[in-house]
Amino acid sequence: MAENPKEDLQPKSYWRLRHDDFFPEPSFRSWSSYRSALSQTPHRIYDRLVGRSTDATELGEVRRRSENDMRRTLTWWDLTWFGFGSVIGAGIFVLTGQEAHEHAGPAIILSYVISGISAMLSVFCYTEFAVEIPVAGGSFAYLRVELGDFAAFIAAANLILENLIGGAAVSRAWTSYLATLINRPPNSLRIHTNLAKDFNLLDPIAVVVLFVTAAAAVLSTKKTSYFNWVASAIHVVVIVFVIIAGFAHAKTENLSPFLPFGVEGVFRAAAIVYFAYGGFDNIATMAEETRNPSRDIPLGLLGSMSIITVIYCLMALALGMMQRYTAIDPNAAYSVAFRNVGMRWAQYVVALGALKGMTTVLLVGAIGTGRYTTHIARSHIIPPFFALVHPKTGTPIYATFLMTISSAIIAFFSSLHILASLLSISTLFIFMMMATALLVRRYYVRGVSTKKDLVKFVVCLVVIILASVGTSAYWGLRPGGWVGYLVTVPLWVAGTLGMWLFVPKAREPKVWGVPMVPWLPALSIGTNLFLMGSLGGDAFVRFGICSGLMLLYYVLVGVHVTYDVAHEHEGVEEKPLRGKVEHEGDVDRSVA
């Protein structure tokens, strides 16, 4: 993978399409090279299973593959409002009505409490990693460092799936609320066809909205932040109105029966509405553009998510008290609820606020998705062409529009119901991996941890994961039972307690860290797996099919490109840059 030195002296145009920008790896230079690579697949898979990146590599060498830097212009204020803009959208305005009507009833507030607690546990994990490794890749970069390339690939594939489906789901919800705003049925603006159920309502408006928000996202991150401030402030006013007006028309009798679908329905709804919290991981991808990551990320991420959790619970309770759960409209719950209590004009305020909220969700989602994809392309899992950052805008134009086009295709065909269940399981799986990675980061460092400590740590971690899986499986198979929990819950406690008492920590966070380790990360593993078990079987079937396709891509492409990149400098004498430190903001960076 050596490059032509004469080529390096000439500035490269951003607008280019060359073979080496897509497949520069030796394994893909010819069919014979590719056949030779395939013959080494078992060896290469093992190499990538045990291989690890480092903080310095992600911050230095990997980041430089974008050729141009993203600009450090964001502060904690920007991140806080990006948190509002990224999270509050289709989840609360659409899924609340859908899940209250179908699974939880008035107890939808408990579903938001449960999923909110689980989300906050994940936020803690993300915050520590984003402060320590402030790069655009988010969880993909963190997992490359702690769990290796294979685990990072699984995360990358699910991240791409999560962002594709998230954008498609929100854009389709945007169309439903636009129809409500102009006083028409939610599906009236879609094209009705004879295709299979859940795929028969074509949505060209969703496609247009996706492309408009993506175009805005690539112009300038700071200018996008200005727009997001204003739009999110307006949205907060609408939310305050919804809460006050909702409680003004509240009837306590609408809360009875509180659990019409039982506890099982509450947890199943919690697993679905978890989608409403999923946007916060986009904020972690902006760490590379944050002026002072150690201060701004904890303030922006934890602050916005704490407020959002309270808002969600209040809005869910207001809806449940304003309208009986059987009468809630699953497509435009709040607008229809206000119309039914005599505030016909209020439905337009709500619909307009929902449209604004979904627009900022799509806008911030386009920013986050572009940065995830950029860092994934930096590792060559997808062609490095998509890692390029535009020299003038400082934004990843190619990566952003790659994801936008893919999401638009899904949005054109698929219903919100199909999208939400698949999105939740993908999101929960990634958050579970993040909690696992945090435990690995704290308790194992190569060259520091002894073999004895490593064995103790692995045993405790396996017990925590297996106990969590057992609890989730027992809940899914026997929702009314309790005997199984007498085994799985004490096992989880034993594994966590064993790690706390008998495994010494190999590393402490430099600036900001998750409190109560290993208890909070272990609880995050347990809650995420439990919520996964609360989803229906169809979600697991779709997740299994998608995972199978991901693994096929990894065996045929991913393992070979990452192997080539990892070994590209073998036999080449490198300049002794290790140990040199760059200072950017408050971040000390060892350049690999």
UniProtKB/TrEMBL annotation:
The keyword Transport applies. Keywords: Amino-acid transport, Membrane, Transmembrane, Transmembrane helix, Transport. Belongs to the amino acid-polyamine-organocation (APC) superfamily. Cationic amino acid transporter (CAT) (TC 2.A.3.3) family. This is Cationic amino acid transporter C-terminal domain-containing protein. It is found in: Membrane. The chain crosses the membrane at residues 74-95, 107-129, 141-161, 201-219, 226-247, 267-287, 299-325, 345-368, 397-419, 425-445, 457-476, 482-502, 514-533, 539-559. One of its GO terms (molecular function) is L-glutamate transmembrane transporter activity. It is a multi-pass membrane protein. The keyword Transport applies. Residues 512-560 form the Cationic amino acid transporter C-terminal domain. The lineage of its organism: Eukaryota, Viridiplantae, Streptophyta, Embryophyta, Tracheophyta. One of its GO terms (cellular component) is plasma membrane.
